[in-house]
Amino acid sequence: MRSEDPAILTKLAHQVEDTLIHTSRREVKIVAEVIGERPAGEISAKHPLVQLAVSCLREQGLPAFLTSGSTDANVPLSQNIPAVVMGITTGGGAHTMDEYVDVEPVTKGMESVARFVERASGG
Question: Least crowded by CB within 10 Å, which of 42, 62, 65, 71?
Answer without folding.
Answer: 65
